[in-house]
Amino acid sequence: MVAALQVKHTRREHPRDYYQRLRHAYFQGKNAPGLEENPTFKSIFLQNLHPCVRTHVVLMTHQGNPSLREIRKMTQVAWETAVTSKAGGKTIEPASSNTEASYRSAASKDHPHNSPKGGDKRQHRDTERKRHVHQLRRDRHSHSRSFRRPYAEILAQKCDQTMDRSDDDHSISDHSSVHGQHLSDSDSASECLSPSGYTERYSPEPQFQHKVITTFPVTRPHLQHHFYNFQPQSPEDALEERLLLDSIAWPETPSLPDPLSLEQTTNPAHSTFTILPEEGGRQWHVGDQLEVMIKIYDFQGRPKKSGGDVLLARLHNRALGAGVAGQVLDHLDGSYSAVFSLLWEGNAYVEVTLVHPSEAVTVLQRLTREQPDRVYFHSVFRSGTVSETTTCNVFLRPSQQPLCNYTDLHTGDPWFCYKPKKLSCDARINHSKGGFNQKLKDKEEKLFKSGVNMKVSIKASGLANVNVLPKMKGQPEVKSSSVKSGPSGYYYQDTWQALGGTPVRQFNTSPAISQCLKGKVVHLYGDSTIRQWFEHLTAALPDLKEFNLHNLKQVGPFMALDYANNILVTYRCHGLPIRFVNVPTKELRYIANELDDLVGGINTVVVLGIWSHFSTFPIELYIQRLRSIRRAVVRLLDRAPGTLVVIRTANLKALSLYETLTNSDWYSLQRDKVLRAMFKGLNVRVLDAWEMVLAHHLPHSLHPQPPIIKNMIDVLLSYICPQKAG
Questions:
Q1: Percentages helix, strand, coil for the chain, rounded to the nearest 5?
Q2: Same domain, yes or no, for 624 and 657?
Q3: Nearest by Cα to 270 from 293, 229, 232, 298
Q4: Of the candidates 333, 379, 323, 325, which has an alpha carbon nearest to the alpha carbon of residue 358?
Q5: What is the SS3 assignment for 90?
Q6: Are residues 470 and 565 in the same domain?
Q7: Which CATH number does the domain housing residue 25 bear?
Q8: pLDDT tens-digit profile of 130-165?
Q9: CATH, residue 562
Q10: Rounded to two decimals, what is the model's pTM?
Q11: DSSP state letter for 437
Q12: Are 429 and 585 in contact (CB under 8 A)?
């Protein structure tokens, strides 16, 4: 596959030749019929097309699941029209609807840079309402935070340059030869017309590959469920994304009957777990691993034959204040194993919880695929006494209404609003969560019933606990053959104990915390679960005084200072999408950009927590966001290696129907796995909030209760002030 990823289609290469090269690299010369229908091969074929061609082909292949033969035909058409056809020194617009072509023509005529002097003022005002406007870009070469350059100027400049370019394309610097054909372009730097007629420029990493998203002039029915695209990726990023998606691939879940009936769905009341070995008689010692077999049954009492249920497992002893998370293994046949590390002497009680039946996962997957915009947002636009509110999102469905594009040109993070009728895009003053469109099919809500099939305990068949004896010298430990890795830590006497890495110290007094943080600057970036840490620190330290910045309590940003001990703590929410209310646009900042503005150093601590507000969006969007943050972290650690960076993972929460459809634990689990994988190997610390919530006896909550937060802060402070050796 790695060799195939390097096969890139070039602008003047015939698609037939590109296909043959890619097929040879991917299948290593094999020529069996039907090989090309391999989904991964089709994906690479599309991904590695030249950007000028890929843009058109992707749009044409959104509907259904076309064969590669059909995709190749579309590629041939796109290549001939978008790349090779030229007339009068100007690139001919790719084939598309007449309406779209006429719209593009009108848009180019109406562009302010193309308008004749002294033209019709009313027509100019109408044009200003229709034209595509972009958010201002931070000039990275300026020391002034207030300096911005309108991207509309950049776009106009590019369009002018493209239209003036000669047929030879000599301004493109990359030259290569394929099959003896001399090429004057490449995938690393090229300009071409988008399906809507606007110039698109693609640049190699690490520069942001910006794709101009234009207003769709008419509704396109075939895009109603697949109307979102992601920015082009380098081969390395594309490979990483595929590996990440493979690593979180969920077992196949059953299709749902219509009308829905619960009879053949998972029923926790009929399901059971059994401590192995079933015959008993074994002694357990500290250091051993305990294995439990879970068997799932449906509402008719019949054993299920497939996997995909979402299960949690915990071992605990409330009297000892002890608890540890178990690891669940899906055998894909209706049975599961849960494995626990035995870490304390005395009784250990097994707890198994069904979060969602596999049938509910089917619904959650479909919602993300078909309705990624089910949580929507609003922005207010205001100029003088005129005020308008429009809908905004990462993805907006095609309509006749023009768009304002607020995509960040440094990070590539997308954001769009429908353009107000009377005001310009620059008049946007705030951001708020708008609401939630609940579009379940008939009776599907039955799959999300608390106490019935959502967050329900599964009972034991036989004993639900074991007695753990002290560790014996020379006695071999009992280990599970199915699970190799263990938990990151556990609770004992209600305090978190790390299993490996930095030992956790207890910071039980204000002087102890202040002494640890003395001379430090702590920057907290993320959602409200990170804001909890700011609130905990300001409450625990009487001398840490919060400045009144006159910001909303939910939104921030916040700042607190202990002048005597030279401690500064700040909090800022992460950038869009974020489900807060009335966030001023000037406070909408992406974490990567904030990190690039930090000096860093041995007295700087950075804490990142970003997951909850991405639950309803495709996981690819989350990967894209983490990638930009990761790059900023690498840059920060390169220029200031002494900086401490701490990553807070996702955590479990209480679930209602609304919480499930917007923020299910299954969504969080997927993002948690991606987060850990993407920061693995970097010089950062990971705070395992998932296990710290799962292992604790307190109920799950999006905002963990104070005893859990206190333990999290102890872990953070232990990273900042590790125990001195000896």
A1: 30, 25, 45
A2: yes
A3: 298
A4: 333
A5: strand
A6: no
A7: 1.10.1200
A8: 333 333 333 333 333 333 333 333 333 333 333 333
A9: 3.40.50.1110
A10: 0.72
A11: -
A12: yes
